[in-house]
Amino acid sequence: MTRKSDVTLILASASESRRRMLAAAGVSCCAIAADVDERAIRESALARRPAAAPPDIAVELAEAKALAISRLEPSALVIGGDQILAADGRIFEKPDGLAAARRQLEALEGRVHELHSGLALAEAGGVVWSTCQTALLHMRPLSPAFMDHYLDQVGADVCTSVGCYKLEGLGVQLFERIDGDFFTILGLPLLRLLAELRSRGIIAQ
């Protein structure tokens, strides 16, 4: 994809999959992990606004990551993203081990949960754009035998995702229906991002 601008793009994330997703779409950028306390940001958002909606928290996290890198690289356009998983008003966090992952799957199986993917752009230490997209995921009922098999196959990698799955891998077997954009589920609402980059002249129209 032809770049229309010499603006440096930075992805405020250590996620190799998100960087590869951008590269596959023809968007070249470097990746720098943002050092932010995600739990503290979530708790602060809820303390300020007890009724804060999960999409708002996802955007706040995305903005915090973009701003953290933008303050270090003010001449760059920084992409920040984060996800919130919610079900029946409860916000979930990444499990801290296989036992916690099993409890998480038991809480989600047979139910619909929401993945809210926040996305933000920051420049010169300020947020210049943000959005959020939501996907609904219908997890099928899971037998104890399948759950054992799944956790055995995926191993500790299950703890790298708040939902205990990667849809591009074995995790797709957990679901009976998905409503929403695939890129949103992967944590980067790519179509929205590409449209915004085009509108800013960063990539070709």
Descriptors for this entry?
205 residues, Maf protein, 7 helices, globular, 7 strands, 7-stranded mixed β-sheet, alpha/beta
Report on the structure:
With 205 residues, the protein is of the alpha/beta class. It has helices spanning 16-24, 38-48, 54-70, 98-108, 144-154, 182-185, 190-199; strands spanning 9-11, 30-31, 77-87, 90-92, 112-123, 126-139, 175-179. The protein has a single domain (9-199), classed as Maf protein. Helices cover 36% and strands 24% of the residues. Strand 3 (77-87) and strand 4 form a beta hairpin. Helix 2 (38-48) crosses helix 3 (54-70). The N and C termini lie close together (10 Å). The mean pLDDT is 92.
Which strand-content bin applies to the residues? 15-25%
Element pattern in H and E: EHEHHEEHEEHEHH
- What does the main sheet amount to? 7 strands, mixed
Low-confidence stretches: none
The class by helix and strand makeup works out as alpha/beta
